[in-house]
Amino acid sequence: MADTISQIRAAFHRKSYLFFLGPSLIIMGSLTLYPMVYGIKLSLTRYNLVRPWIPKTFVGLKNFTDFFSDEYLVKSLWVTFKFAMGTVALQVFIGLLVALVLHQILKKTSLLRFMVLLPMLIVPVVTGIIWRLILNDTYGVLNWIIQWLGIAPQLWLGPDLALITVIIVETWAWLPFSILLFSLGLSSIPEQYYEAAAIDGAGPWRTFFTITLPNLRWTLFIVLVFKFSDALKAFDTIYTLTGGGPGIATRALALYVQNRGFTDFEIGYAMALSILVLTISFIIIGPFISRLDKQYE
Amino acid sequence: MAQVKLNNVVKNYGNVKVVHGADLLIDDSEFIVLVGPSGCGKSTILRMIAGLETISGGEIVIGDQVVNRVSPKDRNVAMVFQNYALYPHMTVRENMAFGLKMAKEPRDIIEKKVNQAAATLELGPYLDRKPAALSGGQRQRVAMGRAIVRQPDVFLFDEPLSNLDAQLRTQMRMELKKLHLQFKTTTIYVTHDQIEAMTLADRIVILKDGYIQQVGSPIEVFERPANVFVAQFIGNPPMNIIKGKCTRVNGAMTLVAGDLSLQLPEDKYQDIAEGKSVLIGIRPDGIKVRDVEHRIREEWRKEATVNVAEILGGQSLLELNISNNRFIAEVEGRMKLHPGDKVTVGFELDRVVLFDPETTEAIA
Ligand SMILES: Nc1ncnc2c1ncn2[C@@H]1O[C@H](COP(=O)(O)OP(=O)(O)OP(=O)(O)O)[C@@H](O)[C@H]1O
Ligand SMILES: [Mg+2]
């Protein structure tokens, strides 16, 4: 009896890694690996959904070489670049600032911290819709407020301001994420470092740069990785706010992919574009990830 | 170097009072150890001296300056923390130099001081390493180095050795003692390890629940504890405390506890009211089992039965039944005694301490 149990236990033990890995392998395989392989296959074909009489044909790397003559792609890249820079910079700076202030005034109270996190609980699409109402040039509350302050109403989603507005709304929606991470990072710094620094005579700036910032390195990396990859794929906020417009003023990569795929129904080309997005993500984020491994050397 | 004075120092956290009017005068270059059970306010007192905690009442004087409103950096104190609090991204050298750099000392002086401290602490080979690449003992030394280079008026230590293993702790304890002999800086040292307290301190401050119980040299607090708490906190195993009475037997002041009666020495406790209840305190090493006849006055020898015998190597602990009273005795050597054995024991009654059972204070 005891023998059987220990045998079962041993057998289980040898293969137990399969038991634990199994579910995630299956999920990863069916939700990530298969679509990716299928996507790569599609990206090598010409496949137009509105002309089903033209068969799906293998075109090799043509979709990829077409990138070089696609001026809209360049414009989208440029929009995405500005969008990524804007949102990442704002979220890191404001996020860190708010986290520092919260940390100073709250220490242990978490109610305010929770309230700051609320925007993140709102579904991005809803965020977009709410902000569209706020920003509306004729009946939006924002124009009402600035008029009340004696400033001329603005076309927030017009050609001049749309990208900036989109960046600000995206920042607003996701700021809680960076605040949360920075707050956690801050509360994980042992108080004694600050006490040692106080006795050593370091002022607030000095303390920030010699204790807070170096100890937040890791958090900073994480925030950068997440925010850059989010920015590269940014879709929902922009889509609901401007739909990429006016014109193509806010048509970031993901929206361009969506346009080519589901407005023009050029599935093959859209797939190739998606792979481009993926590649760019890897190029930008890869170095961060490899730094993460080395952090405590 | 400086004197440190605590005048009726109080600390409240909201409504909770954790230090109740502490008075303490620490002499220049004295080594003071604060001991007491967990939560008694040792760290709080130390941190108030360092300036890391506000002072709710009373005043703290360092040198001749009242420091209640002086920021930590201007108190010229250095503190060593329990977990060392070395700046993790700085090398050992940078860690030690940081305070001097903040004080805007010239570079060559900083360099010289750091090298000197590194030599004293044998840290030379590690100067360019980060703390993560050091052993616990080495980190401890760096933390000490960081304190030494600043040549502060006062060293503050909060359980600096408690993260080290027993062997290293003993070694570092010796080194600390040596450093103090060398630098003679006023030192305030918090620990709950009473061996550290006994070996390091010029004077020990024993705290309980935010009240100072006794201040005295290690021998004083060991031999003449101010109350039952101190008697049992200092010393391991703790002092034997048994209930008894003082009566005169044939004109001699005598302690009676159950069937045990012991004549008090002629120079002690002679003016206690007859019939008064007392708590009788006798240190385990004040009960002799070997060579009793040579050492102990005849009236102080008694018959005892061994309940339990524990051999600890150099010493043995005996639980004895002496005239229906239970005593722990600490005796030298390996005694081949077994439960049930009968032995003659001798009380070093000139070392007895009596306490008032109501107040638990020692009777003068
Ligand atoms: N920030 C705080 N708020 C409320 N109470 C506190 C605070 N810090 C400490 N205390 C209380 O003050 C008392 C003394 O704490 P302190 O840290 O000085 O104890 P200690 O003697 O150093 O104990 P230990 O040996 O465990 O370090 C404790 O009862 C503790 O709960
Ligand atoms: Mg403590």
Explain this structure.
Chain A has one domain (82-295): Orthogonal Bundle (MetI-like fold). Helix content of chain A is 74%, strand content 1%. Chain A contains 12 helices and 2 strands. Chain A has helices at 2-43, 62-65, 71-106, 111-121, 124-135, 141-148, 162-187, 191-200, 204-232, 236-241, 253-262, 267-293; strands at 45-46, 57-58. A two-stranded antiparallel sheet of chain A has the order 1-2. In chain A, helix 3 (71-106) crosses helix 7 (162-187), helix 3 packs antiparallel against helix 9 (204-232) and helix 11 (253-262) packs antiparallel against helix 12 (267-293). The mean pLDDT of chain A is 81. Chain B is an alpha+beta fold. Chain B has a 6-stranded mixed β-sheet, with helices on both faces. A 5-stranded antiparallel β-sheet of chain B has the order 13-12-11-14-20. In chain B, strands 15-19-16-17-18 form a 5-stranded antiparallel β-sheet. In chain B, strand 16 and strand 17 form a beta hairpin. The longest helix of chain B is centred in the middle third of the chain and has 18 residues, at 166-183. Chain A binds chain B through residues 190, 192-193, 195-202, 206, 210-211, 214-215, 296, and chain B through 47, 50-52, 71-74, 77-79, 81, 83, 85, 87-90, 98-99, 102-103, 132, 146, 150. Adenosine-5'-triphosphate binds next to strand 2 and helix 1 of chain B.
